[in-house]
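Entry for iron/sulfur cluster complex. Fields follow.
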Amino acid sequence: MKNNSNKIQKINKILIDHFGIPKRQNPLPNPLDTLVATILSQNTNDNNSYKAFNNLKNAFSSWEEVAQAKRSTIERLIKVAGLAPAKSKAIKNLLVKLQNNSPKLSLDFLQEFSNEEAINKLTEFGGVGVKTASCVLLFSLNRDVCPVDTHVHRVLNRLGIVKTKTPEKTFWQINQNFPDRIAHSFHTNLILLGREICTPTKPKCKICPLQKICNYQEKNFEDKSSSAKKRILLLDNIGI
Ligand code: SF4
């Protein structure tokens, strides 16, 4: 793992040279906001999940109010994010479950737990997987945890950091002992790389800053320049 840790730090430096240090919200978003936003972000893009999150926040004055709302109302408000029946069920269930423990809804109790314990607690809620749980740890609890989505999983396999079949396996492998204080920049910049350069098909290896240290056997050197897209990164932009 030490070897991987060195490689991760090297990749992080190269990505910061290329993309810069990603901005963080200050103060960090509260864990419940991050959990709901991450549920909304499943299988859609950040623009749509951002709209759905704001629809919820604008329609209600607190998560306690959302917990009391009809599921059909939640479903209508988050429709833009897709999979609204499943997402509204997950959100309503998690808020009601939390309210059974305490009328004031909060995930602050997670502060007392280790990373693994906090992930186990969060994944007890229906509709919350390891990726969603690990986003709460990174974005709101400021833990040294790197969530693994499909982009992070693909790029780390191509680079040769892991050799895994699923994002969840990649997550447990790289997070056994993740280097201190770089998880946010590493995770965020790797997603940018995966979206803009190391795309699922025809990666733009010619312009990739990691080209020299990448093990991928099927590099693509067709002459394509990177298109400048507007970048919205949901979990660094959810309002409080
Ligand atoms: S060199 Fe190509 S395959 Fe390797 S990380 Fe960069 S874009 Fe992806």
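NOTE: The radius of gyration is 18 Å.
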